[in-house]
Amino acid sequence: MAKRTFSSFEIFLIFLLVMMTGITVALLSLLFITSGTIENHTGVPSTQSPPATQGSAAPQNSTPSRAPTTTQVSPTPSTPKTTLFQNFSGYHIADCTGQVSDINLMGFSKTGQYARGILTRLYSRAFILAEPDGSDRVVFVSIDIGMVSQRLRLEVLSRLQNKYGSLYRRDNVILSGTHTHSGPAGYFQYTTFVIASEGFSNRTFEYMVAGIVKSIEIAHTNMKPGKIFINKGTVDGAQINRSPTSYLWNPQSERARYSSNTDKEMVLLKMVDLNGEELGLISWFAIHPVSMRNTNHLVNSDNVGYASYLFEQEKNKGYLPGEGPYVAAFASSNLGDVSPNVLGPHCTNTGESCENNISHVILFQASMCVAMGPGQDMFESTQIIGRKIYDKAKELYESASQEVTGPLASAHQWVNMTDVTVWLNSTHTAKTCKPALGYSFAAGTIDGFGTLNFTQGMTEGDSFWDSLRDQVLGKPSEEIKECHKPKPVLLHTGELLKPHPWHPDIVDVQIVTLGFLAITAIPGEFTTMSGRRLRQAVREEFEAYGMLNMTVVISGLCNVYTHYITTYEEYQAQRYEAASTIYGPHTLSAYIQLFRVLAKAIATDTVANLSSGPEPPFFEQLIVSFLPEPITHQTFLTVEKYEATSATWQIIHNDASWETRFYWHKGLLGLSNATIQWHIPDTAQPGSYRIKYFGHSRKQDLLKPAVLLSFESSPSVFEVITTW
């Protein structure tokens, strides 16, 4: 290994880094009481109710709504009776936006990327499907957040149990994050994510939980008869593979079966009532919502959120965003190596195209390889990519004619992913590993690079960083280093337990089936080929036990976050996605094996015989954020038009509208400034307008506690005129 020398300036900065790291670790230890309290979340039902039997009546109830190893038996397979989905609906919205200032944005893990306002609201969109008698049902929730944390899921399930008993359970409720990188952080319990969030924010956590639960409650209340139709189609021009050299490590014979190194297929469900009234849609498509870059400070739902915005605005004419009955969820899929920045990587200092396989950042230099979106700026890029997704969804929606038929079923297990024996063939086995992050994890990607001298594709460690890690966190064991090869271990998170474990050991695996549609709930980010292999394996398992012609979709970022899942071959390349595959080179094989078990249990009607697995912990005491937790509002702004005929002001936009932007600027001595922009669309009608701002002020009297007072203000009325 070549010897590295550092300048005096670099040594000084490294010294500061060491000091800051030591202080951070000390604070983490001090801010927890003892080593933290670990409890099983007993509010979550620990027994799994039997799913719909293969000969049961058709699922008849479905409601979309929005709000901001194992033990098994093998009986003779049975063939499901063909019946029809006939009930569902969705009529309301609740928002789960949370804080829009003084909190980290979750996704890029970039220091200093705090929320400083809002571009769009974040919503929870819930869909419930139920059997005619209401006994068997499944819930799918797509949430405008970076990913679902284990703590978030456990709390949602606990509150659902408190209200509905065993109706909504761990096996029949899927929570899926859209993976926007512009939503609040701070809702995790494992130390790696707590550090990335700069603490736990109880306010944001409560907003998210309340929004998710409310969306399910509304869906539950509004159930009515209906039908589901499915359609599939190709989306062109919206994505590229951001690690194409890793993809090339997959066998050529396997790659030859596919026309692209990304999954371009969109799967869409259309929902209508028995009178044909349109109720909602769910779409799955593999794309990273990172059109908004790591320089962004406005809370928003990114490109897939813009697609939802367009579809819901079209169907909910006359309603403000988030207030109409129609629900359009654009859910995540196997997006691990998929970027929306379709112009590809370019050097930021020269503008020239750069090689994707050597994308990196050099310490203290301006040469950086970053992928570019199709627009003039990230706002325009978000709209361009979002509209491409919307356009294809609209086409598929309007032509959807294949009705989804068959019974409902669901299966779930908790699995210790650090100790899964993987059968490579009939005679050889391998094991998963305790979690660890590799060197290239710190390099970031072409969508958001790191800030130190790490590069993608590192298969050897560095003596300086190894020494620094060993002094601050302790040395990784030989066992974990050997298990993760060829990954050079940067952070041995599976061996770091203070103040709480740094990564989860216990992970959810889950499948729900709606007739011939199977939804696999993936606890992380599968790469393109990983997703293809899982879909094929699950489909083959269903077919082996009599369930033929199944459509298998991958729903990403579900239930608990475990970073990335690459193929074994991609793992050898050790780009960012492989370095972030925390359970080692056989992670994908383990998941395929586990999901096969669930598919077999559903196909053979033996879900009741599945072991529930080890229950995950719920940590009661978490480090809190040092940042203040400001008050949020239903909306921070309105744009209003004066209607002369009624002599009233009519609200035409709020802060969920794409045309508005709310910027919050923190000042000195407790003062702050708010800036509101309305980007007037061509469709705006001429007339008199005003903008209103809704905020809070702090009143502090001598020797008395501070009091927050709400206020609203509006500048002068202005005119919008037509120009030719």
From TrEMBL:
| Comp. bias (Polar residues) | 43-67
UniProt entry tagged with the keyword Lipid metabolism: yes
**TM helices/strands, residue ranges:** 12-33
Q: Where is this region: Disordered?
A: 43-80
In the Enzyme Commission scheme, what number(s) does this protein have?
3.5.1.23
Residues annotated as binding Zn(2+) are 179, 288, 525, 564
KW Transmembrane helix (keyword) present: yes
Where does this protein have compositionally biased stretches of type Low complexity?
68-80
GO molecular function (one): metal ion binding
Co-factor remark = Binds 1 zinc ion per subunit.
Boundaries of every Neutral/alkaline non-lysosomal ceramidase N-terminal domain copy: 90-593
What residue stretches are annotated with the Neutral/alkaline non-lysosomal ceramidase C-terminal domain? 632-720
What Gene Ontology terms describe where this protein resides (cellular component)? cytoplasm; extracellular region; plasma membrane
The Gene Ontology biological process annotation of the record reads: ceramide biosynthetic process; ceramide catabolic process; long-chain fatty acid biosynthetic process; sphingosine biosynthetic process
According to its UniProt record, this protein's enzyme class is hydrolase
PANTHER family assigned to the protein according to its UniProt record, in alphabetical order: CERAMIDASE (PTHR12670), NEUTRAL CERAMIDASE (PTHR12670:SF1)
> Record's family?
Belongs to the neutral ceramidase family.
Protein name listed in UniProt: Neutral ceramidase
